């Protein structure tokens, strides 16, 4: 694409190097290692590094132009453009470069502390099941229309997001279901996208190491609703105290959602029954009434299902297609995902819950699925180099709601696991300390819980969910990454438990 056409009308100005006239841009890159000859390198500030420090590397790889916020940057012979807000302008550049793909798709964006992955996955499954090709961008999976692959972050950088959306258009998708993180909204990565539907799940204490205050966190979430077009739809959890903030921000009509029978809500869900295999729900809204059996447990998942139903309906699915779709949906990986099978004498679930609110919801759901007098176990830890304020809260929730809490490591990163665990234990009430076991090694902790659980018990392994790596301190101030999948470790522990039972019966 010609550079002068790409930057026309943008909030940036040319400060040096050769004229942009006649220059052809072959790619947009935010990572200097991905630069190819003729690419425009976007030297933006990242969470840990400043892209300007990689300009020399980008030029050595053949960058044909630079976008920066530094008018004094010396790029030696290539056009340099300066923008006050590089992140916002790079989002607009990306949408223009890739042909405005978000305007060729019905894009549904889901934001909130918890529930984003489940809600977007259900919308994706419902639309595809009804024959309406839908792509997916989220924490676990990216489906660009040509196939699904593992994701590396909840909401990708702007250039990657627009590139994926463009692939969806080429592959014949008519819609996209997308997780929209507070970081992406605050960093203006989504400013150029056209969302048809916005969904707010909930807002609880998390990411305060980044946002600082709950008000700033909520304001970031509200940006999604400010960006909705007047002919769009906002879908808001009105049971959450922050729902009103999203309603006020919305530029589109809002459908409110309740799982508690809140009067006047547009959409409502009722839990009929639940067990370890799933939940029977009644869903009411603009689509009418749907009776659905879903392979998810817990009242918080009832809200996720309701909001996914509302989202899919807003994108064109009627009651018949929705009801048929629920007969085929599966739970997303690592979201109360069952490990083992019905023949095991203990039930083991892996979940991504890594905040006190999400852990509370998961444990309440698991308690509701327990049969008879079985005990509830939880194995959990807290991530290092992340929001420390939630550590004692998680310790309090786990020790109060589970019969046995095993405190272990999550991704300690550069912190000492023992120091993180001490902060977790600070939230445990004195009378519940006897219900807490400490085992810093995560594999040993999982094995301990599965081995010591009694028949009829239920074990929740929380914090990492779908993740397949663990990030540990390397002893020299950095980190090392090792393969670690809670599902694999729990499966191996269950296999050993079965072997012991067979040996005892022989």
Mean pLDDT: 93
Q: How does the helix and strand content classify structurally?
A: alpha/beta
CATH superfamily of the largest domain: Mur-like, catalytic domain
- CATH class categorisation of the largest domain: Alpha Beta
Strand order of the largest sheet: 9-8-7-10-6-11-12-13-14-15-16
How many separate helices? 16
The N- and C-terminal alpha carbons lie at a distance of 73 Å
CATH topology of the largest domain: the name is UDP-N-acetylmuramoyl-L-alanine:D-glutamate ligase
- Rg (CA only): 24 Å
Describe what this molecule looks like in 3D.
α4 (116-129) packs across α10 and α4 crosses α11 (319-326). The longest helix has 20 residues, at 486-505. By secondary structure, this protein is of the alpha/beta class. A hairpin with a 7-residue loop joins β17 and β18 (347-351). It has 16 helices and 24 strands. The protein has helices at residues 3-7, 55-60, 86-97, 116-129, 158-170, 182-186, 208-211, 214-226, 243-249, 299-314, 319-326, 356-369, 390-401, 417-425, 442-452, 486-505; strands at 13-16, 27-29, 39-42, 65-68, 80-82, 106-111, 134-137, 141-143, 148-150, 175-179, 197-200, 233-237, 254-258, 267-275, 278-285, 288-294, 337-339, 347-351, 376-380, 404-407, 436-438, 458-462, 469-473, 479-483. The chain folds into three domains: 3-97, Udp-n-acetylmuramoylalanyl-d-glutamate--2,6- Diaminopimelate Ligase, Chain: A, domain 1; 101-326, Mur-like, catalytic domain (UDP-N-acetylmuramoyl-L-alanine:D-glutamate ligase), CATH 3.40.1190; 337-505, Mur ligase, C-terminal domain (Protein-Tyrosine Phosphatase, Chain A, Alpha-Beta Complex).
């Amino acid at each position: 694409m010609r550079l002068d056409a790409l930057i026309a009308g943008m909030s940036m100005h040319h400060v040096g190097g050769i004229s942009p006239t006649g220059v052809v841009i072959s790619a947009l890159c935010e990572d200097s290692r991905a630069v190819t000859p003729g690419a425009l390198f976007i030297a933006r500030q990242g969470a840990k590094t400043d892209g300007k420090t990689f300009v020399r590397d980008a030029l050595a790889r053949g960058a044909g132009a630079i976008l920066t916020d530094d008018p004094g940057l010396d790029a030696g012979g290539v056009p340099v453009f300066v923008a006050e807000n590089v992140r916002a302008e790079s989002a607009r550049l990306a949408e223009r470069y890739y042909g405005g793909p978000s305007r060729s798709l019905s894009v549904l964006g889901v934001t909130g502390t918890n529930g984003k992955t489940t809600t977007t996955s259900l919308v994706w499954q419902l639309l595809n099941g009804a024959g309406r090709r839908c792509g997916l961008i989220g924490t676990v999976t990216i489906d660009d229309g040509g196939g699904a692959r593992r994701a590396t972050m909840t909401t990708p950088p702007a250039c990657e997001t627009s590139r994926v959306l463009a692939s969806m258009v080429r592959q014949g998708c008519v819609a996209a279901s997308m997780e929209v993180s507070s970081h992406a909204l605050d960093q203006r990565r989504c400013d150029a996208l056209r969302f048809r539907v916005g969904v707010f799940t909930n807002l609880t204490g998390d990411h305060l190491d980044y946002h600082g205050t709950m008000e700033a966190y909520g304001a970031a979430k509200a940006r999604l609703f400010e960006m909705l077009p007047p002919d769009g739809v906002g879908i808001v959890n009105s049971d959450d105290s922050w729902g009103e903030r999203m309603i006020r921000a919305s530029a589109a009509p809002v459908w409110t959602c309740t799982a508690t029978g809140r009067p006047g809500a547009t959409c409502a869900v009722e839990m009929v029954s639940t067990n370890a295999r799933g939940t029977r729900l009644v869903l009411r809204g603009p689509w009418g009434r749907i009776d659905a059996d879903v392979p998810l447990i817990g009242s918080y998942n009832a809200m996720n299902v309701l909001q996914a139903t509302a989202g899919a309906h807003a994108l064109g699915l009627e009651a018949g297609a929705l009801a048929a779709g629920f007969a085929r949906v599966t739970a997303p990986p690592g979201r109360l995902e069952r490990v083992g099978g019905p023949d095991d004498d203990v039930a083991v679930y892996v979940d991504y819950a890594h905040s006190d609110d999400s852990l509370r919801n998961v444990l309440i759901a698991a308690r509701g699925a327990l049969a008879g007098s079985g005990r509830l176990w939880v194995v959990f830890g807290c991530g290092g180099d992340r929001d420390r304020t939630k550590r004692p809260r998680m310790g309090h929730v786990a020790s109060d709601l589970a019969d046995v809490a095993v405190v272990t490591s999550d991704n300690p990163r550069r912190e000492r696991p023992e120091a993180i665990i001490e902060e977790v234990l600070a939230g445990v009430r004195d009378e519940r300390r006897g219900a807490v076991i400490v085992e810093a090694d995560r594999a040993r902790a999982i094995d301990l819980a599965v081995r010591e659980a009694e028949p009829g018990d239920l074990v929740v392994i929380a914090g990492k969910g779908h993740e397949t790596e663990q990030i540990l301190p390397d002893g020299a101030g950095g980190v090392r990454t090792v393969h670690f999948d809670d599902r694999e470790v729990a499966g191996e522990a269950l296999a050993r438990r079965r072997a012991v039972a067979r040996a005892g019966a022989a």
